Amino acid sequence: MNPQYLPPQQFGAPPQGFQPSRASPLGLGQPNQPFQNIPLGSSKSGQIPGVPPQVGGQTNSSSSAATAGGTPNVESMGQPSSAGLLSQGGPIRTQIPPSQLPPSQIQTPADHRNDVNQGFTPNAQIGKSARVPDMPPMSIQNGPHHFQNSAQQQLQNGTTPGQLPPPTQHNKPPLAFPLPQLNNPSVTQNQNQFMQPPLSGPPPATSPNVPSRPGINNPSHFGQTMQGGPPPGPNQTQINQFQPTPGGPPSGTYPPNQFNQPPMSGPAPNNQFTQPPLPGGPPKGQNTPNQFMQPPVPGGPPRPGQPMPQPIGQNFASQPPLPSQQIPPGNQFISGPHSGGSQMPPLPGQYNQQYNNPNQLNNQLQNMSLSGAGQYPPGPGSMKGPDNGPHMPPPLNQQSYMNGKQPRGTPVQGYPPMPGGQGPMPVGPGGYPQANYQQPQQQNRRLDPDQMPSTIQVMQDDQANRSGVFVTNQKGLVPPLVTTKFVVQDQGNTSPRFMRSTMYNVPISQDILKQTAVPFSLVVSPMARTIEGEYPPPIVNFGELGPIRCIRCKAYMCPYMQFIDSGRRFQCLFCKVTTDVPAEYFQHLDHTGQRMDRYERPELILGTYEFVATADYCRNNILPKPPAIIFIIDVSYNNVKSGLVQLLCSQMKDIIQNLPVDQGQESSNMRVGFITYNSSVHFYNVKGTLAAPQMMVVGDVQEMFMPLLDGFLCTPEESGPVIDALMQQIPAMFGDTRETETVLLPAIQAGLEALKASECSGKLMVFHSSLPTAEVPGKLKNRDDRKLLGTEKEKTVLTPQTQAYNQLGQDCVGVGCSVDLFIFNNSYIDLATIGQVARLTGGEIFKYTYFQADVDGDRLISDIIMDISRPIAFDAIMRVRTSTGVRATDFFGHFYMSNTTDMELASIDCDKAVAIEIKYDDKLSEDEGVYIQVALLYTSCSGQRRLRVLNLSLKTCSQMADLYRSCDLDTIVNYISKQSVHRLLEHNPKAVKDALVNRAAQILATYRKFCASPSSAGQLILPECMKLLPLYVNSLLKSDALSGGSDMTIDDRSFVMQAVMIMDVPTSMNYFYPRLIPLHDLDISNLTETIPQPIRCTYEKMNEQGVYILENGIHMFLWFGLGVDPDFIQKVFGAPSAIQVDVDRTGLPELDNPLSLAIRTIIDMIRVERHRCMRLTLVRQREKLEPVFKHFLAEDRGTDGTPSYVDFLCHMHKEIRALLS
């Protein structure tokens, strides 16, 4: 919107003068603007050779660097979900008196504590920290006691059940687990001589070398330390590897078992694990035999600093068995005196018999290598024969992390070595890889992906714990995940469907925020749909008075305004200024200082509501007319041949029956108009009083104008028969066309002029097929060179080649004209350039490459109907106001900005969102909080001018831990995806991706450093609400929007980049982590109207007897294995076996049986959830399309070599350790 259209005092602007309307007489009869009134059936066109395209224009997204963040504080991945732990979320610690420690664990002098962070120990723990400072065992700050029941835990912590613990430094809910950095034995956190940065090289393979521990299924013990390590320092308490969960034996009474027994008497424990001795000899005062006092075993490694032994003379007694050998069940390599090589762990590919038990806890997360070869087995003294001690039952909700431990695929190479590491090194006699500590390594092992934090598990836990009613009556309340089904009860803060924040507890100073690197941003979807059980925002009409606003900052009346002076004035919580209450709005206050009528006024108690705007808020101070929709159809050879023109015209009657209906109305009063074009532009008069439609051709498209005013826009009711007649004539008129050279910019300009002449806002739906090469404004040249994608030069083909379409977009915004492009290309069409019109006007692109009406027709008609029927706002301006100390600075999405504060959106619908970054102006106060108000001024589909107001209040904090507890990871991912895609157009793609990884590493490293309990550097500790951050960042880096290379077209890449820029939070989460839904085990006898539970998005979870749907909102695949039950194939596909299914068809046959009906219903339900009708692609196992299908499996290694989830987690751990060191 041009500045002259802003109403007086709107958004705090001074009154302004208005220029006269540019809608001039239609120029009929003026020179150089010829048009002919041609009877239908003939077509005449003229053409004037090229006028250079216009230049100018602006981009819409001001940006600054920022990215990644966190999720709601729900159950820690390794913690039981029982009462205390869930609400508490804190790490579990227990204090063991020295008298009860085994001899090898009595405290040592401090000289062995100083380099606890020098190396990597893969014994971390999911959900708990492994080490605590010296505190009284039962102090309130000490976190829940290990052997108390859950209620006691909470009370001892100073909390009541269901309440978060006080924000101390030690009750954070970290997610800690060892990553496969270096393969150490299970060691304590002080065993600095074992900890070393990982070497680079292939990620570890699965480790089948750990004996079973019956009865335990708790991955949260991964980080606990095992015996046999160096003693802790004076102020440190060592926690044994086996930490019982609440409800176990009382404190201090450790059952005798392999986790806490002192080393056996007899020969000194072996040192065949090739650990170097502790520098300086044994600690004083300790003569317990353990591995730290042993000289190296012959063939073992040298002490630190010694040269590496050569292969000649190597003692092969300490070598691992060959790959074909099995470990005999009795020969546990973890304990007992030195007895030769049979006690070594198996090499990759071997399998330890004892590993079959699915309830194993001492899992592959121990003894893993991060990204290099090599691995230490657990230390001696850890396992003493059969495990006879008592065990705790598995915690709730953990089974999904423990099942299916199959080895992963090919290791990914190529990560840079860790600091001090030397890259991949040979492994074998005399060829141990070494880091700077000269430590020998064993062969690497693979991490079990099932032990990694799982999106599916997190979603299921959140659904179990947070579903139901979400009441917005508290400041800074973190909403449920977007995947959780919940009903919002608005009690003062807006629904998370309309607005989400990346954090709900804002640090009081910029320094804290900068240190954590968590972005402070909002994702706003102001027109989002409400669901059943929720009320739509009420509409408040103050009549001529108009909305009540703060006199200074122009914030609208909301629940955060405080009435004073007996109700005669109110103080604005945004800017602290007091404003007089208009006499018509006055009301007395009750004894609490609240207005007596507050429960009768939505604006005083709700977070979301609408005001009816007065003429002051309208363009030219005139109340608007109902908006219009104009169909602009390319009738060149390509579209006629593909059947598009015939299809559109035959379905138009049904399409225009679906125009949106405004709240409280029974029918739509929007109008429609029709334009066709090839090398000239044709307007149609469909006035209801005409006997037949009339056609007007503008042949001179150099200076587009509107030849027709009366009768161009009509309602479907008044002009139904005339529109039907027109739709029959258009395919006949252009059926024999040979026009292949088309225009585009003049056609859009024609729609713009039509809306301008009609003095209404609206939407242009443009159906276009080919690169506009005609010699007219907007002509484009073919610059298709997909080899540039993924290189530093990719921005040359991803940015517009001319500014003409940017300028056209700005002109469209100026009259409230939005443009949606439906693209039917068979070759390069330069979406990067023509898509600017959709981007700047708040529109969208729908793309149907190689369109064929008989194949894709249903999908197209479904998309058109969805597009015009969904809730939408026209001719909108959005402004974000914040309380003092912070302000909105950067904006990402589809809109145009002519100043630094107002987003101008020619339209915005329920499926679009914008992201807004907020920065500090000043320090905040800890007791006040942060208040945000988003106001959207728009024209409804019935032509009423309204203001939709969204209010959100956030808490403030001075502790980082409180910030990490209240992050929303879903919103962070949406924000960093928009920011990263925007930065790709200006920066080197490698720099953008590196910044993303570095930011994620900084977020997690800062948590580790300042919020997690002290623990070994080998643990990867993740904050509870951000434990999926590495998974999502990796998915983002692998996505086509950021990494699409030469295997996709430039237009496809531009398309997904634009799609990401408009995605709301639920859509983006589904796009970056697609749903993989199994269909083969549907229970036909008990079918419900729900989509089956998805499984982890990895090929390992699929089997060849299965049938799965994979969908990400843009693509949908139906994969079936070669071993699927023939009866299933017959019922669903109508073929006798999997090999005979026709995979070229785009849908399932409509067969009359319950299974076929159930699966087709599920596909329809998935399409309804997404706002695009996805084409169903059938994929048979081991056939040509399977690599395309696998490309979207987010947890697997990419076909282009991008790392798998496990590999990336290891890489992130390496980055975090580099930052910490």
From TrEMBL:
InterPro entries: ADF-H/Gelsolin-like_dom_sf (IPR029006), Beta-sandwich_Sec23_24 (IPR012990), Gelsolin-like_dom (IPR007123), Gelsolin-like_dom_sf (IPR036180), Sec23/24_helical_dom (IPR006900), Sec23/24_helical_dom_sf (IPR036175), Sec23/24_trunk_dom (IPR006896), SEC23_SEC24_subfamily (IPR050550). Residues 547-585 form the Zinc finger Sec23/Sec24-type domain. The keyword Transmembrane helix does not apply. Residues 30-45, 73-85, 116-126, 139-157, 181-195, 257-275 have a biased composition (Polar residues). The keyword Protein transport applies. It is a peripheral membrane protein. Residues 295-310 have a biased composition (Pro residues). Residues 1-449 are annotated as: Disordered. Residues 1092-1156 form the Gelsolin-like domain. Residues 624-865 form the Sec23/Sec24 trunk domain. Residues 968-1069 form the Sec23/Sec24 helical domain. Residues 873-956 form the Sec23/Sec24 beta-sandwich domain. Keywords: Cytoplasmic vesicle, Protein transport, Transport. Residues 7-20, 46-71, 94-109, 349-367, 432-444 have a biased composition (Low complexity). Gene3D superfamilies: beta-sandwich domain of Sec23/24 (2.60.40.1670), Sec23/Sec24 helical domain (1.20.120.730), Severin (3.40.20.10), von Willebrand factor, type A domain (3.40.50.410), Zn-finger domain of Sec23/24 (2.30.30.380). It is found in: Cytoplasmic vesicle, COPII-coated vesicle membrane; Endoplasmic reticulum membrane. Belongs to the SEC23/SEC24 family. SEC24 subfamily. This is Protein transport protein Sec24C.
